[in-house]
């Protein structure tokens, strides 16, 4: 049903574009015909995006044109200075971070970075960090705490890189240390899941005081394909796994894992970058204003309490 609607929509949008070009070229008034087609396209869009399934949201979350961390930084913050390296091994392009201003407030900004095309994705390792990426992130977080700067993290990764070199350099330890250290940082931490939040690779930047998710983002302990391969020995059952994992923003808000869902333009965040940036910036500013009212010790205590409530067993 959805595939058929998408096909109709693509065909309609092509016809509208062709009609506009033809009318301009021939100097003919085709406004009535174009308006009818645009209304039909709008109706199809409404039907297409009204009730997306979890698997469809996974596809939107993975869309290669969704805004990246560097785009969010450019669109929301001012005077960004990117910092590199973990001071142990090397720099990891899959995680970017540095110092910036949000209005008059100095902040530390960190996030996973995917590419827009094959060449950039290879350079960024498809947004899958090595241990040095997480150690770089932790170095910047500790620096932010030292200078009393709030920390903003953007999550968008399939997961931590599972290669041999990453395991030899302590991938699990690097993630675990980030979880431990972030739990005790005495500055506000705001986390935004912008696309795909996969496993511990996402969680290593995800311990915060306020956790926000874009409406079409996903956040899960494992990918639907990985879950299906483990449970049913059949990765093609990923759609079924996506339903079972409760990985959408709506699911996680209902389960009280996240604090807020940031709305997206119809069709996804990439359809209207300016509107997306405005919504994310407003959410960050609002939560930062709330968190600024707590003392450092209160922040740590609140963070501990919210972590203890996750997965809480009730009789």
Automatic annotation (TrEMBL):
Q: Which reactions fall under this protein's catalytic activity?
A: N(6)-carboxybiotinyl-L-lysyl-[protein] + acetyl-CoA = N(6)-biotinyl-L-lysyl-[protein] + malonyl-CoA
UniProt pathway: Lipid metabolism; malonyl-CoA biosynthesis; malonyl-CoA from acetyl-CoA: step 1/1
Q: Which domain of life is it from?
A: Bacteria
Cite the GO molecular-function annotations of the record.
acetyl-CoA carboxylase activity; ATP binding; carboxyl- or carbamoyltransferase activity
* Localization of this protein: Cytoplasm
Coarsely, its chief localization is cytoplasm
**The protein's name:** Acetyl-coenzyme A carboxylase carboxyl transferase subunit alpha
What is this protein's gene name? accA
